[in-house]
Amino acid sequence: MPLRAERGTGGRAHGRGASVSGTLIGVGVGPGDPELLTVKGLRVLSEADEVFVPVGDTGEVGRAEAIVRAHLGESSGRLRRLLFALSDDAAARAENWDRAAREVAESLREGRTCAFATIGDPNLYSTFSYLVQAIREALPQVEVHTVPGITAMQDLASRSEIVLALKDEKLALLPFTAGKEALKDALESFETVVCYKGGGRLGEVLGVAEEAGRLEGTIYGSRLGMKGEEVVPASEMLGREGTYLSAMIFTKGEAGRRE
């Protein structure tokens, strides 16, 4: 069934004389392995009028773009790249979001269905949420949907044969950048703790884990499903710096490695 017919997303006017607005769909494409894109995600990407992918200021093909190209082909005429410069400057980041939002809004005003491919899930630490905020400033009535994607913690758990939680066990997810105290609290209160993003803080995270007696059995993963993938015991990362898109799983209790 066509995407527009299913969702009723053809160009829609909001009030007399209102501008036409298409539909924006955030599609989670998984952590890196093209085979982990869901059937629904592939259908939405295949049927969308335009497919937007984030690109860093180096211009290199990122994870999301690589996954999309693996399914739609290298020369897909519907693929649009959105530049998101990597900067610590808040004003520069805001300018990047505004520029990207203007590009997508231009297509939405023409009543097009626009898909935005994001690694992992579009509702979990995703650039898609920021893009929606920026677009809604110009098109407050834009129709937005998301297609969930497989997350890095699910993929890492699978690759390392880890059970994330059983029975009444609790699971916490936080970024590497949350800080020592947040990580200490999580390690004390949750049977399973997952850390995402910010591998430059890896040494600090490993130090906190050692102090808490939680380093043994912990798994580190980076570049999941891609060239250069690394899945190793976290203890092997002592003295090393992790990649930005990396993950770590701490477990105890009944959860943990399958025997």
Could you explain the architecture of this structure?
The protein has 259 residues and is of the alpha/beta class. The protein starts with a helix and ends with a strand. α7 links the parallel β7 and β8 (192-196). The strands form three sheets. It has a five-stranded parallel β-sheet with strand order 3-2-4-1-5, with helices on both faces. The chain is built from eight helices and twelve strands. The longest helix has 20 residues, at 90-109. 32% of the residues lie in helices and 21% in strands. The model is unreliable at 1-18 (pLDDT under 50). The chain has two domains: 3-147, Tetrapyrrole methylase, N-terminal domain (Cobalt-precorrin-4 Transmethylase, domain 1, 3-Layer(aba) Sandwich), CATH 3.40.1010.10; 152-257, Methyltransferase, Cobalt-precorrin-4 Transmethylase, Domain 2, CATH 3.30.950. α4 packs across α5 (127-138) and α7 crosses α8.
Search tags:
single chain, 259 residues, alpha/beta, Cobalt-precorrin-4 Transmethylase, domain 1, Methyltransferase, Cobalt-precorrin-4 Transmethylase, Domain 2, 2 domains, 5-stranded mixed beta sheet, 8 helices, 32% helix, elongated, disordered N terminus
> From N to C, what is the helix and strand string?
HEHEHEHEHEHEEHEHEEEE
Helix content: 25-40%
- The CATH topology of the largest domain corresponds to Cobalt-precorrin-4 Transmethylase, domain 1
Describe the strand arrangement of the main beta sheet, using strand numbers.
3-2-4-1-5
Provide the structure class.
alpha/beta
Query: Number of helical runs?
Result: 8
Strand content: 15-25%
Domains (count): 2
Could you give the count of β-strands?
Answer: 12
Specify Rg, calculated over alpha carbons.
Answer: 20 Å
Low-confidence stretches: 1-18
CATH H-tier superfamily of the largest domain = Tetrapyrrole methylase, N-terminal domain
The average pLDDT is 87
Shape: elongated
CATH architecture of the largest domain: 3-Layer(aba) Sandwich
**Can you tell me the CATH class of the largest domain?**
Alpha Beta
Distance between the termini: 44 Å
